[in-house]
Structures are given as C-alpha cells and as structure tokens.
Specification:
The radius of gyration is 14 Å and the shape is globular. It has one domain (about 5-105): Gcn5-related N-acetyltransferase (GNAT) (Aminopeptidase). It has a seven-stranded mixed sheet, sandwiched between helices. The chain contains four helices and seven strands; from the N terminus they run βααβββαβαββ. It is of the alpha+beta class and about 140 residues long. The longest helix has 15 residues, at about 10-25.
C-alpha cells in the first residue's frame, strides 16, 4: 500500500469520504455530518493512486487541536491508515496547540489509547453514536 497523507484544500474530496463512511455506512444524517467548521479547519487527505481513501480534520483554537471527522474507506481499514492519519494530525498540530482532543466512538477508545490518548469525562451521544472525549499532550 502506497498511501500519501497531506494537508489539502480539497474539502469536497474529504466530504465525499465522510459521506460514504458516516452517512452511508453508519447512518449519520447529512445535517449532523456537515457543520460550519470545515472552512476554519486544517484538512488531511489520504490518497492512493490518485484516489482518496481517508480523511481527517483539525480545528485549532485556544491552544487545543480538536481532531475530528477521521474516516477510512472500508477497503483500507486494518492497514494502519487510521493511525497514520492521527499521527499526521498530531504532527500538523504541534507548535499550534499544547493538547489534542478528539471525540472517539466508544468502540475505538482502545485504538486511540495506543496513540497516546486518555479517555476523559462521561460517554455522550453524537449523531446517535456513543462517544467519549480523549486527550493527549502534544
């Protein structure tokens, strides 16, 4: 697998991936998936052979880098791409924030713990899916 992950201005490619993963696969409503933060976030796009296969975004505010909308196409899950997206998000956040935060779907908490995140606070509902906040120093 030769996947490149880089910052991108191609928000539409990121939204297309998010629609496939969150709306089509997980049943999240389109109105819950799209918000007004895309214009102020840094976007990461994972591409293999010119085809987008994963995405994430980072919203940096008040010393905190909030990583979100992390998605990987089903064909590329289990390859380490999700971890690579998170590591890249952490890399682009260093020097801009002191801490990283994300809202992890509860089934993925263990995955994020392997990347240095610690669960914080109670479980909450986000678009009908249980999540828990996770934090990590940069």
């Amino acid at each position: 697998m030769s996947v490149t992950i880089a910052l991108t201005d191609d928000i539409e490619a990121c939204r297309t991936l998010r629609r496939v993963v969150f709306v089509d696969e997980q049943g999240v409503s389109e109105t819950d998936e799209i918000d007004d933060l895309d214009d102020v976030c840094l976007h990461l796009l994972a591409v293999e052979n010119d085809i987008p296969v994963g995405a994430a975004r980072v919203h940096i505010t008040k010393g905190l880098a909030k990583i979100g909308r992390v998605c990987v196409l089903k064909s590329h899950r289990g390859t380490g791409l999700g971890a690579s997206l998170i590591r890249k998000a952490l890399d682009v956040s260093r020097g801009k924030a002191a801490q990283a935060k994300l809202g992890a779907q509860t089934h993925a908490i263990g995955f994020y713990e392997t990347l240095g995140f610690t669960a914080s606070g109670p479980i909450f509902d986000d678009a009908g899916i249980p999540h828990r906040n996770m934090l990590r120093d940069l």
